[in-house]
Specification:
Blueprint (H helix, E strand, L loop, with lengths): L12 H17 L5 H21 L8 E2 L13 E2 L4 E2 L4 E2 L4 E3 L11 E2 L4 E2 L4 E3 L3 E2 L4 E2 L4 E2 L9
Parallel strand pairs: 1-3, 2-5, 3-6, 4-7, 5-8, 6-9, 7-10, 8-11
Helix pairs in contact: 1-2
């Protein structure tokens, strides 16, 4: 018999970080910007960096975070690259790095598939596309693309 486990809602400073990230991403992607949008974006960016400094995370406005993100430990120690994509229902634990390799010519960032699990201390670096439902265990380092086995 299987049980549905309802994830805990994101609360506290992690919720503030996620809300400021979404508003800042919206303002950055907006095509027509007036003076008020630019001023609001500057103020929001500084407030976002200030709140991120409390928990030691780096979540830039360029990263795409879809709805349904599950953060059991909050954003504590989470680093996201500027172009990284977290699809729907991804679970991210603490001390996770999802980023690009600045030493290579190709600076593409990882794409994490829907309903994936990224364990504590895991590192996903480079042009990596994880399939939906993938599991990255604790302290695992992923630098190459995963291939799905066909049954």
């Amino acid at each position: 018999m299987s049980y549905l486990i309802r994830p805990m809602p994101i609360v506290g400073i992690s919720k503030v970080i996620l809300k400021t990230h979404r508003l800042g991403r919206y303002l950055n992607l907006k095509r027509k910007k007036n003076v008020y949008d630019i001023i609001l974006c500057k103020i929001l960016h500084r407030f976002h960096r200030f709140t991120c400094s409390f928990v030691g995370c780096y979540v830039p406005f360029g990263s795409k975070i879809c709805r349904g993100l599950i953060l059991p430990h909050g954003f504590y120690g989470v680093f996201l690259s500027k172009r990284s994509i977290l699809n729907f229902g991804v679970t991210v634990l603490h001390q996770v790095t999802i980023g690009s390799n600045p030493l290579s010519k190709n600076t593409d960032a990882p794409i994490i598939g829907s309903y994936s699990f990224v364990g504590a201390g895991a590192k996903v670096i480079g042009k990596v596309k994880l399939p939906p439902g993938s599991v990255i265990s604790v302290n695992e380092v992923v630098t190459k693309r995963w291939v799905l086995d066909r049954l």
